[in-house]
Amino acid sequence: MKERLKDFLDPYLLGEKFLLVRGLTEVLDHETKELVAYRGNVNIQDEESPFFMEMFQLKINTLQPTIPVSALENNKTMLIEIKDLTMGQFNGNLWFSCSDIVPVKK
What is the pLDDT of residues 81-93, one digit of tens each? Predict the structure, then answer.
């Protein structure tokens, strides 16, 4: 069973086309209340992905993402590329994180 779960947790299955929805929110350390990362809602837009049009919450592990937080204040959605996407599960919940997000040039 663990091997099947490991196969499912392959970021490649999500595809390569993503849409950031409604900007980024701050992730604060539980104890110090200091900013440690950002989080955003991401919609899968790759028609080849078995998870097409699904939404997941992505943690961006940098305090200075390539797409500035201010750039997302007026935009409701933005096509993005996700750098170093990782995913896993903890206590029955899936988690998704990356090192950075960059805008997709049309």
Answer: 999 999 988 887 8
